[in-house]
Amino acid sequence: METSTGRDKTRAESPSGPSDLRAILDSINDGVFTVDGEFTVTSFNRAAAEITGVSPDAALSRPCCEVFRADICEGECALKQTLASGKPIVNKPVNILTASGRRIPISVSTALLRNAEGEVVGGVETFRDLSLVEELRKAVEGRVTFHDMTSSNHRMQEIFKLLPLVAESESTVLLLGESGTGKELMARALHHLSRRARKPMVTLNCGSLPDTLLESELFGHKAGAFTDAKKDRRGRIAAAEGGTLFLDEIGDISPALQVRLLRVLQERTYEPLGSSSPVKANVRFVAATHKDLRAEVAAGRFREDLYYRLNVMQIAIPPLRERREDIPSLARRFLEKLNHLHGRGVQGFAPEAMERLMRYDWPGNIRELENAVEHGFVLCRQSLILPGYLPKALLEDETSASRHASGSSLRQVEMAIIAAALERHGGNRTAAARELGIDKTTLWRKLRRGKG
Amino acid sequence: MLVAVPAFQDRVAPAFDFCQRLTLWRIDERGCTLIARRRCAPLGAGEKASKLQEMGAELLLCGAIGRPLEEELMARGIGIRSGLSGKVVEVVAALACGALDEVRYQMPGANRL
Fold first, then answer.
1. Which CATH architecture has domain B2-101?
2. Residue A275: per-residue pLDDT
């Protein structure tokens, strides 16, 4: 017997009201829910409950965004668009947060919901859990995502394997890599994987401050230590107590500061400026530089003893030009982030644009790639980023292209472009071949040759 | 105490991971005062946690939150009350008067969060 409570009334009046229709909806594996004109949930099937982790009883009569928790809820709500335009949306890729806090990829489709008189009474959304598909796709591509870093490069994957072991030790780590290779991201991953993860990670860029200021930043000072020191101030070592101190651009510090830092590393104590009492430092040091520190030691600009103290564990991050296979997935990731940020739907890169990205030398590494994608995104007014939208440096870089030709073969570049197209189309070879303007048998032949 | 609340229109944003706006409230003996509004369009977990830390937030009141972001905030010493829904003003007031556990402030499925 139906009761007269609001929730049961909603269920009774919902479009899935007849019990046979409800049984049908509950028997399918796709999540289905309906909303009224106020975006309040009016029905919620079994699969919707299983995927989201929210029971039908909890979902009914609640705002759909609080049940669905999708990345499109605050901007490009598919149901809102369908209700406004009357047009259905098909297989839109979306991420949701389940009730247990797991982020999963799904695809959603929406349509209008009409009553027997043909009047619009709300909307219906169907959705499919893609997490298994996504896992399989990553496995097939051999791509590994590790603490915000994504790479299918074998050197990077070796680093990913090594990081947990390095993080577990308390040893000082020296990160080597050109500017923009992601040294800070690596340091952050080390911190999160370590036993110090619940304590702070503090970063200090040693190349951005003059020597006197750097010393005060690092060690802190007592009131009266120098003219402007009105009161005591904690340094970064103290701020990182119990956690990790990341010293970026360590190769830029002065000889005087090198001596003081060496003492901290050796004795685990330091004295704030203006103080004569030593303070204990329980800090894990991670240092990074783009310089060749061994050469700096040979030239007498960097202390050898400090070099060996810092260089207990060394991780050398390859520049982007030596891991070109990551360019398509990184570019796509940056584009997704921009689409999300600006509520746009740029689909990807034209093959010629991707070719430009693949041919360029990327002296500024991942940071420069991110900027180039943003440049293309800002100028793009179509669904694909064309070569003309990319920064001039990429278009004029013929010397880079010729240099690249000696580093990677044309076949490697071709394979990377094919991989990017396949990624854009979720592994669908027919669609990828169509985008690339080649027959699918040609694509198949090229793939087979590339694997051989 | 400084309390951050992600907002979508005038309600608590459904998912902190995807929220685009943050509000910062001071709760003291004088009551609840809105002291800042910040745009925080989708950032990585680390960046979002840094943003909260920069704002000086000691506690986050939010709807759903992904586990990695939750762990990141905990590591930074920021307290979290998740699984909340309702108007931002009312949720903040409920915190101030100790009524946040009432069912009306729970988002659907919150008991499993």
1. 2-Layer Sandwich (3.30)
2. 82
